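input
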Amino acid sequence: MAIRLIAIDIDGTLLDSRWELPEANRKAIAEAVGRGIEVALVTGRRFDFALPIAQQLRCRLVLIVNNGALVKSKDGTTHLRHLLPRDIARRALQATPRFREGTAVVFDRLRENQVMFERIDWEDPGRKAYFDRNREFIGQASPLESCLTEDPIQVMYTGPVERMREVEALLRALPLAKQFALAVTEYESRDFGLIDVIHPACSKGATLAEWAALRGFVREEVMAIGDNFNDREMLEFAGVPVVMGNSVPELKQLGWRETLSNDQNGVAAAIEAYALVPG
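output
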């Protein structure tokens, strides 16, 4: 069956290890769109953080952002939205006070106060680049729970991998654990991890399935490309799942197709091998 929708993760997949968009990937995506295949960028990034990447592609696509919480067009039109109930966000924060450094609450807002922190060290060497790129979107509230005047998109924890594994274990052990979902991303080479607390029915895979149904596509017509733990559900949904050569070992062990690494234009290679072929 011919591919009609390609879902592509951004970090570690579409972008190379320098966080740049390889020209070969851009051309392969343009060729796919030119042949009538739809493309969705499926990412843990916020819309405003993912948009500059989408704009480099210069073709029609949608963005499934915040690990599936929102689906938007490039112009900011929202097609789907799954927010985390503020009471659940508050209870998650109250259960994790010793991890407050690097913890943020993320909202679906136009610009100011999208990402709220309790404390901000603008010169923190591990976070300075992120803070500088997102300064106009960042706000501060102390205690952090006081910012919950509306339902957020997510509670976001960031830090060293082992510390984030502690957060994950603590959250999964909570009595309210069934009232939220966790999206886990790890970059062991950088010793950096992210844990997102999101709506309980939310994941990259669940939202990709929802979007595919709205577009009239069956799973056999969907191809997904990813590299990390938070990509697993969308890879499980897709009829043609492809893992990157630089993927975490746990995904490579699942028997899916494997493409080249993100420094070897793996997205372009996958599209050419599995989507730009006769159905």
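quick obs: DSSP finds ten helices and 14 strands in the chain.
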